[in-house]
Recover the amino acids of this structure.
């Protein structure tokens, strides 16, 4: 509140001085105008003093308690826990992630009264946060104790290995037996140590707008019968025929700014374009070629459209779903929270099923996206930070909160068929969708593949999203040719 | 101590005291970064340590197709801004300077307003206008003309067009003002003499205005070349980040930013900077030579 | 520009008609041009009175249906809520940065230009050459090493880090120098005879008569600082220090752009510069075009 009053008054002071100068200038007397201009700065300074004085008055008029609360809100930070405990700074790019640590720190303090923690969570815009983290790690100062790192950015951060980050091997050990191993592996460094703690598996599933399909005369049984991509495309054609093939309606949308579809294809064939940790990257894989060729055909036939702005996890994508321009799409489980947050009016319409495959018997899912949380070497108490982090993200209490509040498919597989956990009627996601999300997840438990995120991944991802996918899906470039061009770019970096 | 004070107040020392801030700033914020950018361009700077890699950064640049795209884009943009932002503003300035236009002050102010807005604001406005939805402004116009809708910011030609439109929008008024002030400096006696010789309006423009406007033109040309080559924020705002489909909006500085800042590859990013530096210096030298010889001919 | 020798009465009817037609055409040309140029800002202004959700559905397009226009975005912006507080924090940061930058830049550039104009000494021309040389390298080339330097000097995330690299603006020094070369140097000797020190002459005698140059540069410098994005974006790390352009930029996120605040905030952000411009148009133009005439 204070700052705002100050700012307003300063603007007013500035405008007032400029307007005074204005009069002189308009009158056409040059010297008078000169005076007005040159005195502008000091006058505005004086104005700010007045503003500071006036500010006290203004604040007194308002409820003082509210004033303090408002001042705290100004910066997107939130402090939780025991003010006398060890203080930790935490950065994230998703505000509700911060709240999770807030909740967990309260519980931690209850259970560990002798080792209490106070944590301050700051939310920055995505790109800013990663840039800031890199520079402060580089500088050796200014980094937070704990930080969320998005998987696409993880290779840049893990490049610093244990000069930048604290290995989590020991702190994570008690939880490892129930965790999906592949998810731990994606956050490891080239030295084999584990540096990041995951929130979720991010298993891909297929989302269907069942309400729209029913209007077109299709049933849940039709959807459940889909096994292969051919089945999927045939069902889509049936749907489009039923609604009369309108030009602006499509079965699904394909992405030009996201690689999810290609990841699914790779997982189905058990391939990985990064070549795994320490491998040689190769994007000219059969799985990738098959998927791109299939998508190109879909776009040409009108079965699929190109996602507006490049992929469905964007504002334009939400709008596209709300407008029922598309009625099905594959996406990771964490996309559920996009429904509840940005498309609440779709409640009760959507059904979750497993993804189709190219050949029956293949794996049908892949862990996509994710945020690995790291402890930096600049942490005040590295051991305490690591222990708290692993507990907050991997203990059953932590996983419960992650599912309830963040809507993630937790990495602890034991919970997937735990009735109390998976079928809780109070859970907003269980209420939102037509079926229980964890039932689907449990059904594909052994069919979740892995594509690694290594130091070459940012290059591949960038080339795919900037060039290759656009070429293939928007400009009709031949798949082989586009992938060859991508491979050339990738080869330059390795 | 007293001696020092006396020296400090002497007429000999005073000028050096006055220029001292410049010398400090020059060394700290120009010479030092310039030298370190040169050094860094021969290094591979990793979090775990710095390595000398000779000219391998530059060898990689030679093979880097994305970098070539960036150079091509920057040059195309620069050349086209020159074509659009010199003749038209000059023509507008001549009109403004004549007695043919009413309400001059108002039009001048209107044309100047865009230069006051931050790139963040203008870029956002133009991104929304060039939205690929049928209701975006540009698509409304093309639909009304019976051309249908376009994905403006996904195609090379329209993407470049959008960038140029932002440039023209922001700088037409400013460049016009430059030319107007240049015209004001031309002695009216020159036109009177031309009138006596019975020159037509075109002849006066061709043989009096253009040659005498040369210093202004050279100035506008120089700043436009620099601004064109170093353009980055316009593209950053139009595509909401350093990435654009098929890299149609990628510029040299955009690539420098992406490598050096986003990917933390200071060495490779610096090499990109050095290439830009060499290009800028080469253009400077060419310009000096051309102006020098032209200047001599006139004498 | 013609008809300097001809007397009004001698003009034939034909000439007058032709002139009138040309006047209409030329004026119309500028009217159209001005319309096109003001249009995007106008569209933005209209959009700022509509809910942000409409922007997503409609893109930016003028829809003059006044019944759907509300002041909601502005009342929200000025209201007691998180976004409003954030916005005015950025606004205040921008104002502070602008005032400090203008004050220090002008002071430093003035004294440097003074030292480069009012005295004769061996290094004078060389130093002036260096000033010009700094103009020959685009600033963007230096951002990586400068950024690293700022980290080493611990100036990252401070107002000094944002300001210092640009404080000796070559073009500002150039402008002051040009202005001062036209001032009488007798004043210096007169001052010395009166017993003023070299520094006293600089600040007490010469500074007041350089006021018009200060006015012109203050406006340009203020505008530059208010609209500067790239460098502050790199230097500032803490959200509570962001300036208005950087802050507005943070409203664009993948999961929903806060168009309500963004557009209304952008429009309100143009206001200070716009008002200064309207009032001091003359100085704007003087400052901007100083380099263009002499070449």
């Amino acid at each position: 509140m204070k700052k705002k009053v100050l700012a307003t008054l300063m603007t007013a002071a500035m405008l007032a001085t400029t307007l005074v100068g204005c009069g002189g200038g308009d009158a056409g007397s040059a010297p008078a105008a000169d005076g007005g201009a040159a005195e502008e700065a000091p006058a505005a300074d004086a104005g700010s003093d007045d503003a500071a004085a006036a500010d006290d008055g203004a604040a007194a008029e308002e409820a003082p308690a509210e004033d303090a609360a408002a001042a705290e809100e100004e910066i997107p930070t939130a402090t939780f826990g025991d003010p006398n405990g060890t203080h930790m700074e935490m950065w994230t790019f998703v505000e509700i992630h911060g709240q999770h640590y807030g909740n967990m720190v309260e519980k931690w303090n209850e259970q560990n009264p002798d080792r209490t923690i106070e944590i301050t969570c700051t939310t920055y815009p995505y790109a800013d946060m990663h840039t800031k983290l890199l520079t402060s790690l580089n500088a050796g100062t200014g980094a937070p104790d704990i930080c969320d790192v998005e998987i696409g950015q993880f290779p840049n951060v893990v490049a610093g290995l244990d000069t930048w980050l604290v290995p989590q091997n020991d702190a994570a050990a008690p939880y490892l037996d129930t965790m999906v191993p592949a998810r731990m592996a994606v956050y490891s460094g080239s030295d084999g140590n584990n540096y990041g703690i995951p929130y979720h598996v991010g298993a891909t599933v297929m989302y269907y707008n069942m309400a729209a399909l029913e209007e077109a005369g299709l049933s849940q049984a039709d959807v459940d019968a889909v096994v292969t991509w051919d089945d999927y495309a045939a069902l889509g054609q049936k749907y489009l025929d039923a609604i009369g093939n309108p030009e602006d309606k499509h079965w699904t949308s394909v992405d030009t700014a996201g690689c999810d579809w290609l990841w699914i294809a790779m997982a189905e064939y058990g391939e990985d374009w990064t070549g795994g940790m320490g491998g040689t990257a190769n994007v000219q894989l059969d799985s990738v070629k098959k998927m791109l060729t299939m998508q190109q055909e879909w776009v040409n036939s009108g079965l699929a459209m190109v996602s507006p702005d490049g992929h469905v996890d964007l504002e334009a994508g939400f709008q596209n779903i709300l407008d029922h321009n598309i009625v099905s799409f594959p996406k990771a489980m964490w996309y559920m929270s996009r429904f509840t947050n940005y498309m609440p009016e779709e409640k009760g319409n959507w059904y979750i099923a497993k993804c189709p495959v190219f050949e029956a018997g293949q794996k049908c899912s892949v862990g996509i996206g994710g945020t690995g949380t790291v402890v930096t070497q600049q942490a005040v108490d590295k051991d305490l930070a690591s222990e708290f982090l692993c507990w907050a993200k991997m203990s059953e209490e932590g996983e419960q909160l992650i599912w309830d509040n963040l809507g993630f498919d937790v990495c602890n597989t034991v919970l997937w068929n735990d009735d109390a956990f998976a079928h809780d009627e109070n859970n907003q996601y269980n209420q939102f969708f037509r079926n229980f999300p964890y039932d689907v997840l449990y059904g594909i438990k052994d069919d979740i593949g892995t594509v690694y995120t290594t130091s070459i991944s940012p290059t591949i991802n960038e080339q795919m999203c900037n060039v290759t996918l656009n070429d293939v899906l928007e400009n009709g470039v031949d798949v082989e040719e586009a992938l060859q061009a991508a491979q050339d770019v990738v080869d330059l970096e390795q | 101590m007293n001696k020092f004070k006396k020296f400090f107040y002497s007429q000999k020392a005073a000028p050096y005291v006055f220029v001292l801030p410049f010398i400090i700033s020059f060394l700290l914020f120009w010479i030092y970064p310039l030298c370190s950018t040169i050094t860094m361009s021969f290094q591979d700077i990793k979090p775990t340590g710095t390595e000398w890699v000779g000219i391998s950064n530059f060898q990689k640049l030679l093979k880097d197709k994305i970098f070539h795209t960036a150079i091509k884009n920057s040059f195309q943009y620069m050349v086209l801004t020159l074509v659009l932002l010199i003749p038209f503003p000059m023509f507008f300035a001549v009109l403004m300077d004549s007695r043919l236009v009413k309400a001059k002050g108002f039009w001048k102010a209107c044309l100047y307003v865009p230069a006051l807005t931050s790139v963040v604001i203008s870029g956002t406005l133009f991104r929304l206008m060039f939205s690929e939805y049928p209701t975006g402004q540009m698509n409304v116009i093309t639909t009304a003309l019976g051309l249908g809708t376009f994905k403006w910011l996904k195609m090379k030609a329209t993407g470049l067009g959008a960038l140029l439109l932002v440039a023209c929008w922001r700088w037409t008024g400013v460049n016009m003002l430059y030319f107007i002030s240049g015209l004001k400096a031309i002695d009216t006696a020159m036109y009177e003499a031309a009138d006596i010789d019975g020159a037509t309006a075109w002849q006066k423009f061709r043989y009096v205005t253009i040659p005498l406007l040369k210093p202004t033109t050279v100035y506008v040309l120089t700043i436009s070349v620099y601004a064109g080559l170093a353009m980055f924020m316009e593209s950053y705002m139009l595509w909401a980040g350093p990435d654009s489909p098929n890299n149609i909006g990628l510029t040299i500085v955009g690539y420098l930013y992406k490598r050096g800042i986003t990917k933390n590859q200071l060495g490779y990013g610096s090499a990109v900077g050095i290439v830009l530096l060499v290009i800028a210096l080469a253009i400077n030298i060419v310009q000096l030579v051309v102006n020098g010889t032209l200047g001599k001919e006139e004498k | 520009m013609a008809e300097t020798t001809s007397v009004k009465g001698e003009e034939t009817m034909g000439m007058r008609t032709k002139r009138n037609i040309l006047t209409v055409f030329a004026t119309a040309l500028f009217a159209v041009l001005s319309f096109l140029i003001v249009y995007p800002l106008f569209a933005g202004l209209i959009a700022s009175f509509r809910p942000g959700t409409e922007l997503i559905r409609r893109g930016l397009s003028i829809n003059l249906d006044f019944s759907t226009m509300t002041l909601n975005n502005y009342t929200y912006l000025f209201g007691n809520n998180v976004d409003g507080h954030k916005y005015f924090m950025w606004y205040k940061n921008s104002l502070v940065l602008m005032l400090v930058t203008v004050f220090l830049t002008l002071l430093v550039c003035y004294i440097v230009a003074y030292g480069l104009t009012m005295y004769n000494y061996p290094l004078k021309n060389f130093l002036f050459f260096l000033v010009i040389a700094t103009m020959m390298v685009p600033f963007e080339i230096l951002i990586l090493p400068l950024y690293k330097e700022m980290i080493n000097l611990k100036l990252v995330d401070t107002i000094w880090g944002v300001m210092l690299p640009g404080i000796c603006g070559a073009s500002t020094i150039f402008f002051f120098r040009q202005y001062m070369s036209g001032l009488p140097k007798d004043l210096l000797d007169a001052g010395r005879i009166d017993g003023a020190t070299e520094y006293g002459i600089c600040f007490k005698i010469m500074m007041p008569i350089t006021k018009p140059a200060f006015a012109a540069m203050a406006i340009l410098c203020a505008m530059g600082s208010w609209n500067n994005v790239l460098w502050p974006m790199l230097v500032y790390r803490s959200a509570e220090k962001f300036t208005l352009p950087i802050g507005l930029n943070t409203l664009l996120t993948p999961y929903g752009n806060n168009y309500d605040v963004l557009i209304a905030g952008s429009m309100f952000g143009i206001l200070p510069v716009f008002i200064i411009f309207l009032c001091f148009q003359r100085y704007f133009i003087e400052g901007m075009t100083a380099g263009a005439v002499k070449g």
